[in-house]
Design a protein that fits this description.
The complex is a heterodimer of chains A (472) and B (252).
Chain A: H1 3-16, H2 18-56, E1 61-66, H3 75-80, H4 92-99, E2 104-109, E3 112-119, E4 122-131, E5 145-146, E6 156-160, H5 161-167, H6 181-188, E7 192-201, H7 208-216, E8 231-245, E9 260-263, H8 264-269, H9 277-280, E10 293-298, H10 304-313, E11 316-319, H11 322-364, H12 366-374, H13 379-422, H14 435-462, H15 465-470
Parallel strand pairs in A: 4-9, 6-8
Antiparallel strand pairs in A: 1-10, 1-11, 2-10, 3-4, 3-7, 5-8, 6-9, 7-8
Chain B: H1 3-7, E1 14-25, E2 28-40, E3 45-49, H2 56-64, E4 71-76, E5 79-80, H3 86-95, E6 97-100, H4 112-122, H5 127-140, H6 156-168, E7 174-178, H7 186-202, E8 206-211, H8 214-220, E9 223-228, E10 231-237, E11 239-240, E12 247-249
Classes of the chains: A alpha+beta (472), B alpha/beta (252).
């Protein structure tokens, strides 16, 4: 029999006992739906965690420090590597070398300094940090009000939320609701700030005021800066507030430690004195500044280890927390597996339903099978017909099930967001149905149905026509 | 003798040799067919006669390829049915023989057109050709007004006519009928028998009909084979006047 005819006959046979076959199909649908709902929640949660981690910027970042910097993150490394005094300096040429490594997206120096800002004639002392222009596309700045820097050298700043509140004279009280970024941004955007900073210049000069400010941020303050190849000049710059961001100042993300950001190139060009300058004075009279830390962005977390190894070979200290992602991904793989198993269990029950329905159908349709064989149906025709019936139930069950599962996931998502809203959290997408899950679930439903049809179909095919026709 | 037989006198359409079909039912061995050797020429109209349990239906099932012999051979058109695979046997049932039954055996969930079309589906005939052929076949048995009716909406005679149309649809050389008038009143039975005779005479089909009514056999069949306890107990030719169905003579 031709496949089309087989399918057509299968559909009409299914319609003959519509109630029973519908119930069986509903069984499959529920199985598929639970599978889809479970897996879409698992995937959604994984993506949510992934987004959160991405926001932290931790897992694709390698922090590079010089071995000379004895404040490094990893003590063991410092003990095992070459002596600090013999290790290379973390300067611009080292940064460029690191940026050339395979799988490195960018490497930029971490420029930060404590400085005084004046806003409406009131002074504020705060930590400033340079922000690479690539951060524009970073979702860490989701929910930012205003706009990103217009260029990498524009005299513009982005404020961190709590600093914005401070500028407006609003101090958040414990237990009270946090100020909304939108409210904070309104009076500040477009306003001017005056920054006082200490410039490091190669020409000799004396400006003790700037030097004092610079050394206040220096933890290795025991060094004596006198008699060096550079001098420190106090300068002022006017900066425009272009944005207020919602970044958590206490997160581990490097830039987040600062409360106000300015474009990285601008920060570099200002030659603000860095804490490391003090130590580098001993062997760096050529005017090339060394960096305290260089942040390296790697294409994906999986390549972090390789990049880290390469940088270590260059003689620097590195730090990343890639191991944390590995265990996290493992956790989600196990979670998905378990959710999938629970979902599949429902489908397994549904497949028993299919077997039952088809075996019952054989008993009921014994005579019909006998007739078909008597008028020339082959074993294959009969088998194919029952197989097709199982397949058609699988197709319908799969499609309805995916729709149902999608709906269930949506309802759960909606419920969660209602709850989150009550708890004053922003809404989150905790449920995600990728296209492969849709196709996979439908395919899975069909395969399970066909497997369930295997036994009934071969049983129907083996039926002896003489006995089947005798059966009344 | 019918003209079809005389022209093909020397050829053999069906030949059985020491054909046996034994069943085991509990401890008892049922010899449904027990050593039957018989030859049927093309175009013959054979009536298989005997009481119930004489083995006539079992013999018909063996010739129809629905059942396999325990021993012996049944050769139809030079192919030994016992040696055919299940798939080949299905093909044989599809193309070589057409069957009608006492209880009509139409599929209740299908209308007449679909029922008659069903063997064409198994024969993988194209969709657009199928309906025309089925209509033609139903037209031949006078059911062109009942195409969309389901079997349960029809009288017994109409159902049997539909099953005749189904048996003819793949143009088989053999029509095997198992008590085709058993469930019909005599008038309707006569109608059916006239159709069968027409197929025999105009299409040259070889007919084997199981019946327990001797008068029916005498009126229509060209040859009568008598069975008892699975054994052949009589074989006689029968001269029939095609117009009136009167008996002109006997023999053997």
């Amino acid at each position: 029999m031709k496949t089309y005819d087989m399918a057509e006959l299968a559909v009409r046979n299914l319609r003959e006992s519509i109630l029973r076959n519908s119930l069986t199909t509903v069984g499959i649908s529920v199985g598929v739906a639970s599978l889809v709902a479970m897996l879409s929640l698992g995937i959604g949660l994984q993506q949510l965690a992934g987004r959160r981690l991405q926001k932290s910027g931790l897992f694709d970042t390698v922090v590079v420090t010089s071995r000379r910097d004895l404040r490094g993150f990893n003590r063991e490394q410092e003990e095992n590597g070459p002596a600090p005094a013999e290790s290379p300096a973390l300067n611009e040429s080292a940064r460029q070398q690191i940026a050339q490594l395979p799988n490195v997206l960018e490497a930029y120096p971490d420029i930060r300094f404590v400085t005084e800002l004046r806003y409406e004639d009131k002074p504020y002392l705060t930590m400033m940090a340079g922000l690479p222009f690539s951060a524009k596309n970073n979702d860490a700045f989701d929910g930012m009000q205003g706009s990103f820097f217009s260029s990498d050298t524009a005299p513009e700043v982005i404020l961190q939320k709590s600093f914005a509140a401070q500028l407006l004279g609003k101090t958040p009280k414990a237990g009270s609701e946090e100020e909304r970024v939108t409210e904070l941004a309104k009076p500040l955007l477009g306003k001017q700030l005056t920054m006082k900073y200490a410039e490091r210049t190669a020409t000799p000069a004396t400006d003790t005021a700037g030097k004092e400010e610079a050394s206040s941020a220096n933890s290795g303050g025991g060094n004596n800066p006198a008699g060096t190849g550079y001098s420190v000049v106090s300068r002022e710059a006017t900066l425009k507030i272009v944005g207020v961001c919602d970044l958590d100042p206490d997160s581990m993300r490097g830039q987040a430690r600062a409360r106000i950001f300015l474009p990285l190139k601008l920060a570099q060009n200002l030659h603000v004195i860095q804490p490391s300058d003090l130590r580098d004075t001993t062997n760096m009279a050529n005017g090339t500044p060394a960096y305290t830390t260089v942040e390296v962005h790697v294409k994906s977390p999986t390549q972090v280890q390789a990049v880290e190894d390469a940088i270590k070979k260059m003689g620097f200290n590195t730090f990343s927390i890639v191991d944390a992602t590995r265990s996290l991904r493992q956790f989600f793989a196990v979670l998905d597996l378990f959710l999938g198993i629970f979902g599949s269990l429902a489908l397994a029950v549904a497949s028993i339903g299919i077997i039952n329905t088809l075996v019952m159908a054989i008993l009921e349709r014994r005579r019909e099978i006998g007739i078909m064989k008597a008028i020339g149906a082959s074993d294959g025709d009969v088998k194919g017909l029952f197989f097709a019936e199982a397949g058609v139930m699988g197709i319908f069950g799969g499609f309805v099930g995916v729709a149902l599962g999608w709906a269930i996931g949506r309802v759960i998502n909606l419920g969660t967001n209602v709850y989150l809203k009550r708890q004053h959290f922003p809404p989150e997408q905790i449920w995600f149905v990728p296209w492969w899950l849709v196709l996979g679930a439908i395919a899975f439903a069909i395969v399970v149905s066909l497997l369930s049809g295997l036994y009934p179909a071969s049983r129907a095919a083996r039926l002896d026509p003489v006995q089947a026709l005798r059966y009344e | 003798m019918p003209p079809a037989e005389s022209s093909l006198k020397n050829s053999i359409a069906i030949r059985t040799e020491n054909l046996c079909r034994h069943y085991r039912m509990g401890d008892a061995l049922i010899r449904a067919v027990d050593g039957i050797s018989v030859q049927v020429a093309p175009g013959e109209f054979v009536a298989l006669l005997g009481t119930s349990g004489s083995g006539k239906s079992s013999l018909l099932n063996l010739v129809a390829g629905l059942d396999r012999p325990t021993s012996g051979t049944v050769v139809v058109q030079k192919s030994d049915l016992a040696k055919l695979s299940r798939a080949e046997l299905a093909k044989y049932r599809l193309h070589t023989v057409g069957m009608v039954f006492q209880s009509f055996n139409l599929i209740p969930s299908m209308n007449l057109l679909e029922n008659v079309e069903l063997p064409l589906r198994f024969a993988e005939v194209d969709r657009d050709k199928r309906e025309g052929l089925a209509r033609q076949a139903l037209d031949r048995v006078g059911l062109s007004a009942r195409l969309r009716h389901r079997p349960t909406e029809l009288s017994g005679g109409e159902q049997q006519r539909a099953s005749l149309a189904r048996a003819l649809i793949n143009q088989p050389q053999f029509l095997l009928a198992d008590e085709p008038t058993g469930n019909l009143d005599s008038q309707t039975g006569k109608e059916i028998m006239n159709f069968i005779r027409e197929f025999n005479e105009t299409l040259g089909m070889t007919i084997i009909m199981v019946t327990h009514e001797r008068t029916l056999a005498e009126r229509y069949a060209s040859r009568m084979i008598f069975l008892a306890d699975g054994k052949l107990v009589g074989d006689q030719s029968n001269v029939v006047s095609s117009a009136s169905g009167q008996i002109h003579g006997g023999g053997l």
